[in-house]
Amino acid sequence: MRQQAHHLSSSPSSPSTHSTSPAPLARYGWDAAFAEAFAPYAADGLLPGRIVRVDRGLCDAVVPAPSGPGTGSAGAAAGLRTVRADLAPVSDPDPTRWACTGDWIAYDPDERAVRALLPRRTAVLRSASSKRSDGQVLAANVDHVLIAVSLAAELDLGRAERFLALAWESGAQPLVVLTKADLVPDPATLAHLVADVEATAPGVSVLTVSAATGDGVDVLTAAVTGGTTVLLGQSGAGKSTLANSLLGSETQTVRTIRDSDGKGRHTTTTRDLLPLPLPGGGVLIDTPGLRGVGLWDAEGGVAQVFSEIEELAGDCRFHDCAHTAEPGCAVLAALEDGTLQERRLDSYRKLIRENEWIASRTDARLRAERRRVWKQRQALGKHLVQRKRGPQR
Ligand SMILES: Nc1nc2c(ncn2[C@@H]2O[C@H](COP(=O)(O)OP(=O)(O)OP(=O)(O)O)[C@@H](O)[C@H]2O)c(=O)[nH]1
Ligand SMILES: [Zn+2]
Q1: Backbone angles phi and psi of 244, in degrees to 5
Q2: Which ipTM value was assigned to this complex?
Q3: Pocket residues for ligand 1 (CB within 6 Å)?
Q4: Which end of the chain is more exposed for a tag (fewer CB within 10 A), N or C?
Q5: What is the assigned CATH class of domain 299-389?
Q6: What are the residue boundaries of the CP-type G domain, all occurrences included (predicted)?
Q7: pLDDT tens digits, residue range 253-263?
Q8: Which CATH architecture has domain 15-119?
Q9: Architecture category of domain 138-285 in CATH
């Protein structure tokens, strides 16, 4: 077992473990459904917690602190402490099941180990860089995927569609944020740009924000409060600036110095999951490598980005219509009468092809399993969205 001598003072095996309340975890997104999933572990004296960082077989996680004064630890909200935990008990041959930032866990304070991951509600996946086509989970239990698109350059709708496919595939709700709105001073021009993006993103809210003037930051803040948010977008899109706006004075990288390997070598680490300083709580996940992720097995996500094309396809005469030259093709008819743009259809085809290529290199059994989970999530997601906002339209 790895002995971690770190700066966190509270005793990990306090006898008052059973009296700790997970209520402070609500700031991190803990809710009744997670509590229900955790219930069997509570009886074993385990603690609920959330992974804020993963690092070579170990993770940092926030867990409830034993009640009493002075138990908060650096970087954790009141009533919580940050622990270093061993991930060995939850290792898995399937990389998509590896523990990642955002996972809810059952933490064993005696062993200082993660004994179980609670079932994920959503997961942001990307292809691993290795030759084997394995997916890798970059963030778990995400509620909002915030896609930053800069107004400083010409809108790249194809790129936005790619990020949207990835976002939908995760099971989270995408949200497009057009950044640097101060660079488009003419309201009519800005309205046109928003309309273009809205047409590209059915079912997605499109916000405009200027970090320079502060315009729109309040609306964005309201949209992410209480939930778990990740930021995606091209380099230079303004993600760091947005993160700083959301996190306020709480800096984006909380630095902690600890004795990392028991040999006296001090390392500086960053935390990937940070609490938002909002009355309603919420967290931002900003994991290195997450921001510019590539598409991976996002068939369902692609279908959702191009839902109007999928709907049209339902009216094609042949159910296996390829929308190329078939008689009675509703997609080609929409192209003809101008209701569907050629750019949009091209983009759809490109992402479908890309996805088919990735899928062909992926283990069929794992794929089928993920498809099943995705469908469940999608059904649940729709249900939750409807409960929160009332039926749409
Ligand atoms: N005018 C204006 N410039 C902005 C605004 N937000 C960000 N910028 C500028 O845009 C540039 C890129 O912003 P970043 O926040 O670093 O972009 P990023 O997406 O984090 O970039 P990467 O770290 O490369 O992924 C910086 O020079 C910012 O100062 C804004 O609201 N208005
Ligand atoms: Zn067709």
Answers
A1: -65, -40
A2: 0.95
A3: 148, 179-180, 182-183, 210-212, 233, 235-241, 291
A4: C
A5: mainly alpha
A6: 131-293
A7: 433 333 344 33
A8: Roll (2.30)
A9: 3-Layer(aba) Sandwich (3.40)
